[in-house]
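So, is this right?
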Amino acid sequence: MANADNAGLDGLITSPLSRRGFVMTSLISGLTAATTSVEAQVIHTEAAGIEAGEVKIPAADGPMPAYRAVPEGAGPFPIVLVIEEIFGVHEYIKDICRRLAKAGYCAVAPELYARQGDLSTMTDPKVIIRDVISKTPDAQWIGDLDATAAWAASAAKGDPGRLGVMGWCRGGRDVWLYAAHRRDLKAAVAWYGPIGGERTDIQLRTAGDVAAEINAPLLGLYGGADTGIPPASVEEARDKAQQAGRSVELVIYPDAPHGFHADYRPSYRKDAAEDGWNRALAFLKAHGVG
């Protein structure tokens, strides 16, 4: 994997990597089953002017389901790897890809939990965390993102020289780790990603652990009213990165809860979501992903 080895993640990348077969062979249709209701403000982005739909990405152990959206035309277009929440690549994540395509990006969201469980049938977030998220090795999804980036460049009109990553919730945590892994990454955007957390033999390091090792400028978008991610922990990670000469820009929306960008949930906060989105697009372009 070109530009992917990183001594700062010793013990995380293992070879050969033990893998299991895919449980999910296609993406979730509609929204996650873990939501009890669909809020009226849910955003739907039409596919006019873009190419969008489910694809299969060659992974080490078979085809991995993913969603790809890219502008019409020859390209190549800058690539944004989209990292899902814990709920899978459902309609909200697909719509984010379409929004990015409308902004000129080749956006691809791989189903990173396809081997660990069928997220289309799961309704309890605690069960998802226990049975799927905690059992997904960091080395596995990092390898899958690398495979996605390679596929986007070779088969989806993506420009490998303009590579960015954006993730939400658990995916925001993964943004920090991927930025510490991928040396050719140009920019990273983490939406309310956990900074701490339990360390295990398959998830060895937290976002805070790798803050001083990120290889690309990182924008963190967090909620001041997020009861699970204290703003002080994010500020500590930012300070740790900056002291090591890394670039981290942090925006904390004082009244926003966790999930303030998730328009299908009651946690959605329109003003913070729209401001964060505009900042994210400007950040990508300012750092060579545009």
User: Anything to note?
Assistant: Residues 138-155 form the longest helix (18 residues). DSSP finds six helices and eight strands in the chain. Confidence is low (pLDDT under 50) at residues 1-18. The two ends are 23 Å apart (CA to CA).
